[in-house]
Amino acid sequence: MSAILNAWRGPILAVAVIVMVVVLNLAMGTPFTVRLLAEATAYGLMALGLNIQFGYGGLFNFGIMGFVMVGGFASVFVSFPRNEAFWVSDGPMMLGRALIAFIAGALLVWGVRKLPIAGRLRNVAIVVAWIVAYIVYRTQLDPAAAYIESTTGWVGGLGLHPVLGWAFGGLLAGIIAWFVGRIALGLRTDYLAIATIGIAEILRALVKNMDWLTRGTQTVSPVPWPTPLPQQLQAWGYSINDSFIVGRLSFFALSGLLLVVVFFLVQRAYRGPWGRMMRAIRDNHIAAGSMGKDVKARQTEIFVLGSVLMGVGGAILVSFNQILDPSGYQPINHTFLIWVMVIVGGAGNNWGVMIGTLLLYVVYIVADPIAQFVLLNLSRWTQSIGWGAIPEIESRSLQMRVFVLGLVIWLTLRFAPKGLLPEVVRRDR
Question: pTM for the whole thing?
Fold first, then answer.
């Protein structure tokens, strides 16, 4: 009996999640359900990225929030309308000088590293080169930033198609991940986790404080959609309710198609020689290295690939919500939640991760209104018996999301420690 249940576990879980979405649609309405599904596709890409890093390669990346934020910024930079006041000012020329100073500093550091010197003298020379490069770069960047903020406010966007912003979000996250991987992937597992947390906080601080480039805490809105907005559809004659359904369905169709394509490619790679090599490195990197595999290069490769998907997911999320708000990025929403999706779904199993993503995101979003409903009725009852009303119901309801996530993790680890759909490794005899 247990063997039959294990064999049919995947289809049963898929049907259960579909039924849950149908019930949600009946209870909350189609516009709300389609919105949730569109956001879930972004989280699905992030979870797939983490599954590649952790499920395939055993890499503990707790800096997901940083790559998600970078992807969101990239989407805004590419797709937001141009700030013509900036382009006709001296800002571009001043930023060009800062870019030249950055390149010159990078070449200086690279050249010093190539000098035929060794020992302590080489280390001192590299440190001095870094200091000189930093000073030269800041002497050009700081005046440019001050000028832009005082005259035009910020750089603005490029006014290109939002899908190009999604692609640039993945590219930028991948470039940053490559540099991070070169530095941090030689660390032991726990130190890698600590390093990625620090890198995520550095990225958040940069996006939050570079007002001349990102507007910082002033936020950027409205970010364009790649598909017609509900307001545009209303202008074309759609009713308010239909415009939100059709508009969000169009966005969901585009982001969902991207998720399907990425899932297909990742699944094929997992089943091929590349996937077997990554699992071998994950299970015993010493043995894999002794067989001639470049372990650090392969780990860097998988770290970059996963981060690219996180950047694309972050770009999609910002596009759909139409706002870039650096203060809205929190580890609980953009790191911890994604880890829970992968752990609950089943690390190393892409189908399990997809089921875990949809299941957890629905539970996470619905926990708030359900908690409000329960607490409001409970408050009326306590008032009727003279105990008084329950205070701060809205904030308490939001906190229930964290409680629900903890409960789901506890139940999963208790009854399905390897996830709802554990990894299945096929061994050909």
Answer: 0.92
